[in-house]
Amino acid sequence: MFRNILVHIPSERPIRPVIDVAVALTVARRSHLDAVAIGYESMSAAGMIVEGGGAAAAAVMGAEQERAQERANAAIAVFEIEAKLAKIAYGTRTFAAIPAEAGRTIGSLARLYDMTIVLQPEPSKASYDNEIPLQILFNSGGPMLVVPYIHKGPLDAQHVGIAWDGSRLAARAVRDAMPFLMGAKAVTVIAANEEAGEASSDHLVAHLGRRGIAARVQRLKADRGDVQGAILSVAAESNMGLLVMGGYGHSRLQERILGGVTRSMFDCMTVPVLMSH
């Protein structure tokens, strides 16, 4: 029931969207909220230890760690102000790390929580904060709520859309989103280019009905490269405040690669999206 929530507070990007959503959601669900902020150490500074060696390189690295920690502390301080004003139960954690270590650490940390809230990546602006959502999606084992960087205010989950293709990942996302679905006033199952099968959108609506969730199906046809655009159009036209979908991807040479629709949604989302992998 989302009683234990984690939020990643960016240290290099706008933080207001995730703070507003996380704090309001914690108040509404009487949850505990932990916030984590990471200061990223420069890779070039880390390389000096190998190339330069000695006391000089160690001093440079120490100074870089201090600057990274200061950035993380500054980000978490803003969160703490809002958390105290809202009188929620919360905890904080900050640390400095090189990007690869940061991703592994927060991916593991997120495994302890019912849900993790992150800011949508913004590829046009270089930042290691952009890599954190992908690490959490693939490594946490739980749902991740992605908040658009243009989002303002709390989460509005009165009308929830489900991007349904009958897959295992879509089914996982629906199960993970059940607290939102059971509290919504309207639920729409969006079926793009649907083919007949045992896990059809009609079957999903029937199963949701057994839980007391009244849902309807909206079918659509879209070119393979524009499925994400079609889903977002439906969301906008129907005034949906939350989308639920599976987060697709695979490994290639130790690198995580997002699937096409998932990558497009990461890049272009206009409403918060709950993803599960």
From TrEMBL:
<comment type="similarity">
    <text>Belongs to the universal stress protein A family.</text>
</comment>
<dbReference type="InterPro" id="IPR006016">
    <property type="entry name" value="UspA"/>
</dbReference>
<protein>
    <submittedName>
        <fullName>Universal stress protein UspA</fullName>
    </submittedName>
</protein>
<dbReference type="Pfam" id="PF00582">
    <property type="entry name" value="Usp"/>
</dbReference>
<feature type="domain" description="UspA">
    <location>
        <begin position="172"/>
        <end position="275"/>
    </location>
</feature>
